[in-house]
Design a protein that fits this description.
226 residues, mainly beta, 2 domains, seven-stranded mixed β-sheet, three-stranded antiparallel β-sheet, 8% helix, globular, binds zinc ion, CENP-V/GFA, Mss4-like_sf, lyase, carbon-sulfur lyase activity
Length: 226
């Protein structure tokens, strides 16, 4: 298990959660600056923008061209709690090509927990070099963006509705009565719920660890029968 060296304890922190089984991958030199989401693109090249996001100091901003994330998760692992200074991380998953940084790679800092390094090396945390707002977790193919940074418009109610596009959704359950089976088709969920700081009684699927290979838990953290 990867550890963040500065925080080594008897209870080592897991690496920030990633969406797929990303192997550690280093690009030679600075080739990555010319790839999504860092390559600078004209508006025509990128296409119509659906969402815009920015850090606290506004020096870093990016555009998103997809209506909704491919998936969304709340991660309760210790790594996310510490890195975000928050009870859990809310991550919305997009392809790298769905995102484009306005200033390319300028003004960004990186932290690879698996290497305890600030050198660009995915998977990595990406933050603003100036105000240190966390911008996203970058994997090899996907970016996990933090929806709190998305700029919303209108009244608070209208903003809540827009924000719903990024939320993990309620479980969609498909019943197959002939086979006496119930299939949960939703992968949007809470993960590492065993390490949670608080119960989240929202009825959404919860896993004790990374995914469905771990134990499924109810809102109070009791293991459910499979
Ligand atoms: Zn900033
Ligand atoms: Zn996590």
């Amino acid at each position: 298990m990867a550890e963040m060296g500065a925080f080594k304890t008897d209870n080592p922190l897991p690496a920030p959660a990633v969406t797929n089984n990303i192997s550690e991958h280093t690009l030679d030199g600075e080739e990555w600056k010319h790839r999504a989401p860092y390559q600078v693109q004209s508006p025509d090249e990128f296409g119509p923008i659906k969402w815009r996001a920015q850090c606290k100091c506004r020096r870093v901003s990016y555009a998103v061209k997809r209506d909704k994330p491919l998936n969304a998760k709340f991660c309760h692992c210790r790594g996310c709690q510490v890195m975000h200074g928050a009870p859990f991380q809310w991550a919305a998953i997009f392809h790298k090509h769905d995102l484009s940084f306005t200033n390319g790679s300028a003004g960004l800092s990186f932290y690879s927990a698996s290497h305890d390094s600030q050198k660009y090396d995915v998977p990595t945390k990406v933050s603003c070099s100036f105000c240190h707002t966390l911008i996203m977790d970058e994997g090899r193919n996907m970016c996990l963006v933090f929806p709190q940074l998305i700029q919303l418009e209108g009244s608070q109610d209208e903003q809540r509705k827009q924000r719903d596009a990024f939320r993990p959704t309620y479980v969609y359950v498909c019943r197959l009565p002939r086979l006496n089976m119930t299939v949960d088709l939703s992968s949007r969920c809470h993960i590492f719920y065993e390490q949670r700081m608080m119960d989240i009684p929202d009825g959404i699927t919860k896993w004790s660890g990374m995914d469905e290979n771990s134990q499924r838990m109810d809102d109070q953290g009791a293991v459910m029968e499979s």
